[in-house]
Amino acid sequence: MVHLKTNLAGLTFEPPLILASGIMGQTAGSLEKMIEMGMGGVVTKSVGSDSREGHPNPSIVDVETGILNAMGLPNPGIDEFCKELGKFIPNKPIIGSVYASNTDHFVGLSKKMEDHGVSAVELNLSCPHAEGYGASVGSDVGLVRDIVENVVKNVDVPVFPKLPPMSDMVTISQVVEDAGAHGIVAINTVKSMAINYETGRPVLGNLYGGYSGPGIKPIGLRCVFDVYKSVDIPVIGCGGVTTGRDALEYFMAGSSALQLGSSIYYRGLDAAEKISSEMIELLDQEGYGSLDEIIGLAHQ
Ligand SMILES: Cc1cc2nc3c(=O)[nH]c(=O)nc-3n(C[C@H](O)[C@H](O)[C@H](O)COP(=O)(O)O)c2cc1C
After folding, report:
1. Catalytic residue among 82, 127, 223, 238
2. Are 293 and 244 in contact (CB under 8 A)?
3. Distance, CA 287 to ligand 1 centroid (Å)?
4. What whole-number percentage of the chain has pLDDT above 90?
5. Nearest atom within ligand 1 for CA of residue 187
6. What single string gives the DSSP state of each residue in 202-266?
7. Which residues face 98 on adjacent strands?
8. Model pTM above 0.85
9. Is residue 104 situated within a structural domain?
10. Which of 32, 138, 143, 263 has its CA 20 to 30 A from that of 197?
11. In this structure, which residue's CA is closest to atom 23 in ligand 1?
């Protein structure tokens, strides 16, 4: 039977399925629960310097092939969140996600996360629905280089920039690798909107949201494929992984580990357990002896 385990930037993920940022990541209790339910690691909700309420409702809408959310990065601010982190009893890696609009804030937030025991830092350079943050920062290549370089210089834990889906993933990946990143997370949600034909109005309070779930899998696969061929650091795939088959496809595109977000909605709190069993069954069925045999297979 294939053993599902990955070593990445000095961290062990067993199984290599990690809770994505923003889903069940607000409290120590919910993060621990997700590990109990089969995740090999967890990412916190993205946290900024100050508390933030987020966007007005409706902020989530179910569309046929996925979910649109325009939460707008609601969070209690780093100091309150660190109190929560202090309650977390780690037995698997915990990755602290941070967002900011400038380098100094990214550095300060990352240092606080490190001081409160995270195993790695994830830089949110990719949220598509928070003006001035996320993808607005991630689309400025010079700023991205400066942020990554300075965070890497100032913390001792691994640093994982989380990139938005872009038509050119090669340039940005090479920039973050040159800047010293230890791995790349791809992708965040895809900027999108929903319109109600009865009212003739956009559905989300913020007009625009981020699309996640099964419908974005082909976009995520393409991005991971392009990142894998452009850099030597590991890629953590994310976007629409809902079944063991999706997971295998992402590993074949070049992922060394995966993040699961919307699958909690589609498969339940034990999504990681279900996806792990399905992966093992499929790997056995196809005659693979280890996960390593399929990482990047689609590039041969
Ligand atoms: C409700 C919701 C909230 C999210 N919040 C964050 C966040 O705070 N930071 C972040 O980097 N990504 C956030 N994301 C994006 C997810 O981490 C993930 O990148 C995206 O949903 C694609 O993966 P999925 O298809 O498995 O959900 C959020 C997604 C959803 C659905």
Report:
1. 127
2. no
3. 33
4. 97
5. 19
6. ESSTTS-EEEESGGGHHHHHHHHHHHHHH-SS-EEEES---SHHHHHHHHHHTEEEEEESTHHHH
7. 47, 123
8. yes
9. yes
10. 263
11. 239
Pairing outcome for strands 195-196 and 66-69: unpaired
Residue 212 has pLDDT above 90, yes or no: yes
What average pLDDT does this structure show over 36-56?
Answer: 96
Give catalytic status of residue 127 as yes or no. Answer: yes
**Distance between CA 181 and CA 174 in Å, rounded?**
10
Task: Please give the residue range of the domain that contains residue 290.
Answer: 6-54+72-189+212-299
Whole-number Å distance, alpha carbon 278 to ligand 1 midpoint, is 23
**CA–CA dist 258, 40 (Å, integer):** 10
Kindly provide the residue ranges of all beta strands, DSSP E only, lying in 113-174, ordered along the sequence: 120-124, 159-163
CATH code of the domain in which 29 resides: 3.20.20.70
User: Residue 97: beta bridge partners?
Assistant: 122
Ligand 1 atom 29 nearest Cα:
22
Report how many domains make up the chain: 1
Q: pLDDT grade, residue 201 (50/70/90)?
A: very high
| 89 in a structural domain | yes
Q: Is residue 41 part of a domain?
A: yes
**Identity of the residue numbered 106:** F
Q: Each residue of 106-158: pLDDT tens digit?
A: 999 999 999 999 999 999 999 998 889 999 999 999 999 999 999 999 999 99
Q: Compute, in angstroms, the gap from residue 71 CA to the centroid of ligand 1.
A: 10
